[in-house]
Write a structure and sequence with these properties.
The chain has about 350 residues and is α/β, with parallel strands linked by helices. The chain contains 17 helices and 10 strands.
Length: about 350
């Protein structure tokens, strides 16, 4: 297990967790009465970056833990957090920036796991841009000025010895328009999740564009998503959450080990995808899955510090107040730690 996993718990929490392990021991022990759980997603319909709960649902892992899980897609991160705070959902999958901002504004929430513990965007450029250093003077497509994406590129540029102001940032919009701009030669580079963008994947295969780096490699502590719950649910339904996190992790592990079968679930639950690229995209996305829970105290602190640098947050919050690590610890006690 990684050294920083030692930050998860104090001895008092370990005692609580050991007591709760009894309820996680066997399927028979948890199947006496099905517990209804409402699981909110921050995308409606689901997207390839938020489909993770469906793996545990489709494989029956929630049911084996005695949980009757209803997955509820909602339109946006703010909406799903509001649903959590109003009691419409019990668990919410959302991005880290939204989670920390909500907590900073007084939302009584806890991080319980990290479905995607790394970013899924990559920095992709035309064949003329051989290295990151070659971005100097080039046109870079961003979604909007001053946003997280632009600030990420500025940090990467500085890391590789480029003056961030020597890059031309062109606000173009969402991932599809940015990809089109790159493929048409209107810009020299951009960053986006390319997992299921067939034109971009085809262009990579043809050598017209190539990946320079990934956000997961450059910012390893910044995840794509966290699972959140409310303080009330964390206090009053702790056994349910331990079972949920255990089943979720089993689902993420299954998807990593069975990418083709996982791709079939993705196509079933995420509309509009090109079947010819889903299996390939699923393999790439799965490398970000939090197969050992996805969060530690150190990674949550690191994510906050980076979001401050990116201009998303004005300051950090106490990790011990926003992170509830006992549910991952229980899952690890049941499932064991594995290498990705």
């Amino acid at each position: 297990m990684r050294r920083r996993a030692g930050h998860w718990l104090g001895w008092s929490t370990v005692v609580v967790c050991l007591g709760m392990l009894v309820s996680l021991g066997t399927t028979a022990g948890v199947a006496q009465q099905m517990i209804r759980v409402r699981y909110g997603l921050a995308t409606a319909p689901p997207a390839i970056t938020t489909v993770q709960p469906y793996f545990a649902l489709e494989q029956g892992y929630f049911k084996q833990q005695g949980l009757d899980v209803q997955i509820i897609p909602l339109p946006g991160s703010v909406t799903v957090v509001r649903a959590l705070l109003s009691g419409q959902v019990d668990v919410a999958l959302t991005d880290p920036g939204t989670a920390f901002l909500a907590y900073s504004n007084g939302a009584p929430i806890k991080i319980i796991s990290g479905p995607a513990e790394k970013g899924t965007d990559v920095l992709v450029a035309s064949s003329a841009v051989k290295t990151i250093a070659d971005l100097k003077g080039k046109r870079f497509a961003i979604s909007d000025p001053g946003g997280q994406q632009q600030n990420e590129i500025k940090l990467i540029a500085a890391k590789y010895g480029i003056n961030p102001d020597d890059i031309q940032y062109l606000p173009i919009g969402g991932p599809v328009p940015r990809a089109q701009a790159l493929l048409l030669g209107r810009v020299d580079a951009t960053s986006l999740t390319i997992a299921v963008l067939k034109p971009m994947l085809d262009a990579i295969d043809q050598g017209k564009v190539h990946v320079l780096t990934s956000m997961g490699a450059e910012f390893p502590d910044l995840p794509t998503s966290y699972d959140l719950t409310s303080d009330t649910v964390a206090k009053n339904q702790s056994q349910m959450l331990a079972r949920l996190v255990t089943a979720d992790i089993r689902g993420w592990r299954w998807a990593v080990q069975n990418p083709d079968a996982a791709a079939q679930i993705v196509m079933k639950d995420v509309p509009g995808l090109d079947p010819s690229v889903v299996a390939r995209g699923q393999r790439e996305i799965a490398m970000a899955y939090g197969i050992n829970g996805g969060v530690t105290a150190a990674s949550v602190q690191g994510a906050q510090e980076l979001l401050v640098k990116l201009g998303i947050l004005h300051g950090t919050v106490d990790v011990n107040q926003i992170l509830a690590p006992q549910f991952i610890t229980l899952a690890m006690g049941s499932l064991g730690f594995i290498q990705h």
